[in-house]
Write a structure and sequence with these properties.
Elements: H1 14-31, H2 36-55, H3 63-109, E1 140-143, E2 150-153, E3 163-166, E4 171-174
Antiparallel strand pairs: 1-2, 2-3, 3-4
Helix pairs in contact: 1-3, 2-3
């Protein structure tokens, strides 16, 4: 007599699902700061994992555990996008403070500072990090040599996506 039961599916434990979610958040929100991996994971969960959980017979006995893990992974994906949006908002606010400091320096000295460090301590208490990330967290400032123009930028979406303030034009734009 043959056994007609479907093969048992192995489901990762809750600690393992939490660890994978934490790694995704750490890697994609605080190291790469892109959200690309989270986007791919989210699409994989929606298109492959969720339908298989409900349609494949081999997952019937572990469906609740799979749904729990999928919820953990979705929460991690959402947190990546929340952290990235929050970091970009922080960078924008800090950039506006630096723009004001550079403008005040220019008004007083009739030239742009050679570097942001020239603003400390008179125009800014310190030069802040753009974001709370491990990479792509610095402001980039350049005075273009002829002292007629300067730019301040930060990386919003690595490796490109650089909002840039053009002092001569007195407006924000994107470098790429």
């Amino acid at each position: 007599m043959t056994d007609e039961r479907p093969p048992q599916a192995i489901v990762p434990s809750v600690p393992r699902a939490l660890l994978v979610g934490a790694i995704l958040i750490g890697l994609d929100a605080f190291y790469l700061n892109q959200g690309a991996i989270a986007l791919l994971v989210g699409l994989w969960l929606l298109v492959i994992t969720l339908p298989r959980t409900f349609l494949a017979k081999k997952f019937a006995t572990v469906r609740r555990q799979r749904i729990r893990n999928i919820a953990i992974y979705f929460a991690a994906v959402i947190l990546v996008f929340v952290f990235n949006a929050a970091n970009n908002s922080i960078a924008k606010r800090r950039a506006e403070v630096l723009v004001s400091a550079v403008k005040a320096f220019h008004a007083k000295n009739q030239r742009y500072p050679k570097s942001l460090e020239e603003l400390v301590p008179t125009y800014a208490e310190r030069i802040p990090l753009a974001k709370y990330t491990f990479t792509f967290n610095q402001f980039n400032y350049s005075s273009l040599g002829n002292n007629d123009d300067a730019r301040l930028s930060y990386i919003e979406l690595p490796p490109f996506g650089r909002p840039t303030y053009y002092f001569r034009e007195n407006k924000w734009g994107y470098l790429d």
